[in-house]
Amino acid sequence: MACKVPDRNCNGNDPVHIPHEWYQPSKILTGGIFTHIFILLPELSFQMDPAEEEISGQMMIPRFYQHILALAFAIHEINGIPNILPNATLGFRIYDSYHNVRMTYRTTLDLLFKLHQFLPGYKCGIQTQLMGVIGGLRSDTCSQMADILSLYKIPQFSYGSFQPAAKDETGFPSFYHMVPNEAIQYQGIVDLLVHFKWKWVGLMTFDDDGGEHFLQTIEAMLSKSGICSAFTNKVPVTVRIFEMSDMNKYIMNSIPVFKDSKANAVVIYGENANIGWLAAILLGINESLATDLQYNEKTSFGRVWITTAQIDFALFILQRSWDIKMFHGAISFTIPSNEIPGFQPFLQSLSPTQAKGNGFIKDFWEQAFDCLVSDSNVPTDDACTGEERLQNIPRQFFQLKMTGHSYSIYNAVYAVAHALHVMYRTSSKFRKMENRDKPNSWQVEPWQLHSLLRNSPFNNSVGDEVMLNEHGELVGGFDITNMVTFPNNSYARVKVGRLDPQAPPDKMITLNKERLEWHRGLSQAPPLSLCNEQCYPGYSRKKKEGKKFCCYDCSPCPEEMISNQKDLDYCTRCPEDHFPNHRKDECIPKIQSFLSFEEPLGVTLATLSLLFSLITALVLTVFIKQKETPIVKANNRSLTYLLLTSLLLSFLCSLLFIGQPNKVTCLLRQTAFGIIFSVAVSSILAKTITVVVAFMASKPGNIFRKWVGKRLAHSIVLCSSLVQVGICAVWLASFPPFPDLDMHSVSGEIIVECNEGSVTMFYCVLGYMGFQATVSFTVAFLARKLPDSSNEAKFITFSMLVFCSVWVSFVPSYLSTKGKYMVAVEIFCILSSGAGLLVCIFFPKCYIIVLRPDLNKKEQLIRRKH
């Protein structure tokens, strides 16, 4: 389009002055808009041309100058490679966005329309073609550039923006990210926090759309992973670097937030300016700690700073006195970089006197080395000597090694060059052009490169593969670096891990924890970052009312439950065969408990059983040997022998209750005990009834005469015992006892016992035996005074009183004990009741038989009767 604007001369000077520009002419240009200098423009007053308004302040970040040099170096390197675009030379035009919306739009228009002057909508002079623009460290800068560049479908490459506002699906199809998808970085942050079990974290971001998107996304992910945000510090976008009142207000409000929070891990998102704000806050905190009475010396405020890939630890040149050690141990997600062989020599060769067309180097040199670059030969005291070298600038302000952002810019230039080269080789139009007189006059439009930029991988000069996916995002992951500072206020960023989106979800993040260094102000390494102290094993977390779910109290585990890890939400119950130790942090196997022959109680009861059995056997032997004596014959010898045999067996059957229960002993012990005792009590009942019948039969004409004899006694024993046998048979047929394990009755023990099968049947056996004893006691009590020389009713009455007393007390004692002591109670009752019968009935007779044989005569019995 011809230049026909009134009062504007295409060859004249443009009143709009952009102070910083670097132009290397060529017919094929790559543009660059970088954030290097921060300026403060006055508010629009509409009283004069905006271009004529003065800049009220500016400040430079020297570290960002490397971004500009990376583009220039990449163009220089490509032009020297013969197998890339052999018949073309690339040029570039670089501007500064000045961290300002007005200037970003202004410099973007410059790239499109300016040769030596600026006329929007016109291209004056020789036609050049802008094939791509690299720029946009911040997401808002990218969006402002894209507002204009997208109209012309010029490829735009962001080297630092992660925000979705500039993605193709939002209306910018010509936008390309030279960085991986930000969602990968979000997941990496969460995985890092989970890896170190940091549950209480602070968040710091700018109070803008990008910061709000970050908070909405990350807080949902944190909550899903059981992590809470302790605080959210938003840097107001209205805070300006040169407005001290706003700065001080924000810093003073932020100091207690950072200082008083228990969050030892703080995630910083946004841009490099956040590092400046954070540094100012930390300086204020350290000053307050140093003046605190409880501190005798200056104390360093320690936290783990987790920064995103947008953030570089870059400080303004005016911040030389700031101590970089405040960021020691910071963990950063960084864009991967590689060492380019010729880059450092390229930087070391720079000099303000030899940098033709470089409008940035003069201000950079003067601020970095605190000297003046003069065009005259007149020496001054503060003039630069020309001996200054970039490697002498402290690393926090400038470094020679290519950073991740610079590497992204380097790869963006190569992406444009490779796309042009592919078009040059494959297009028939280009092949025809090679035979023309002007081989360099390509007719290439920027929009033609889009199909070649996406999903077309290539290798850069050091062999790294660069590929943009269908969304225009770099395919790859992030490095994880750890900041290590040194006493001379320098630092190094040590690679300690990798975030790889191609790895399985549980292995996306890898860390070499041995290489990690932590802030020296932290009390332990790695530190804790929790709302409150950890709950140790033996305790579980209990939510605090009105607080976030990460804040909790520690509650002791209930009985029979444990927690064997820190910070468990719930205590767990031990397996049935285990029980908690006294600290409730471990399950201990329960010991099997039963009445054993090896333990003192078992030995005592077994000894008593054998002793009583031996005594009973001796009594039985005495009675058998003295069977012809009057005292033995007078008391029904057969019933006496049956009773003694029953008592002998009852003492021996108690041995079935000692030892580990098995199927046989469980079937026999209760039924044998019940039947044997039933026979014994039946024999006593038969003895008593025999005495009564004999007395009644002694009267003339009594009908009981025919009942006198052994038939009555044997019938009573048989009938009475058969009832108990029937009860036991039904019990064994329907609900037989069986070996069982009781896990719960006694803490710490597994009771090996005989399950009775049917408690009802067990008490039926006891009840019938009690019924027999009651009848025997009643009959004996009524017959105790009958005038018969062989009357045993008195002894039987007393023996049955003992017997009933023992078994009446058995029931409550049996029910109130557990485990082996229940068995011991039953054995004791068997032995004591049997011993009562033996002593009360037979010891008086043994006394006469053994010690007073003179009384064991018929004459004596007749005399006693009268």
Kindly describe this structure.
The protein is α/β, with parallel strands linked by helices and about 850 residues long. The protein has four domains: about 20-40 and about 55-180 and about 340-375 and about 385-435 and about 445-465, 3-Layer(aba) Sandwich (Rossmann fold); about 180-335 and about 475-515, Rossmann fold, CATH 3.40.50.2300; about 540-590, no CATH class; about 635-845, Rhopdopsin 7-helix transmembrane proteins. Helix content is about 40%, strand content about 15%. It is built from 21 helices and 27 strands. The strands form eight sheets. Strands 10-9-11-12-13-16-17-18 form an eight-stranded mixed beta sheet, with helices on both faces. Strands 1-5-2-6-7-8 form a six-stranded mixed beta sheet, sandwiched between helices. The protein has a three-stranded mixed beta sheet with strand order 25-27-26. The radius of gyration is 52 Å and the shape is rod-shaped. The relative contact order is 0.07.
Features:
alpha/beta; 4 domains; Rossmann fold; disordered N terminus; 6-stranded mixed beta sheet; 21 helices; 14% strand; 866 residues
Distance between the termini: 161 Å
Shape: rod-shaped
**What ranges have pLDDT less than 50 throughout 5 or more consecutive residues?**
1-16, 165-170, 433-441
- State the strand order across the main sheet: 10-9-11-12-13-16-17-18
CATH class of the largest domain: Alpha Beta
User: What does the main sheet amount to?
Assistant: 8 strands, mixed
Beta content: 5-15%
DSSP summary, beta strand count: 27
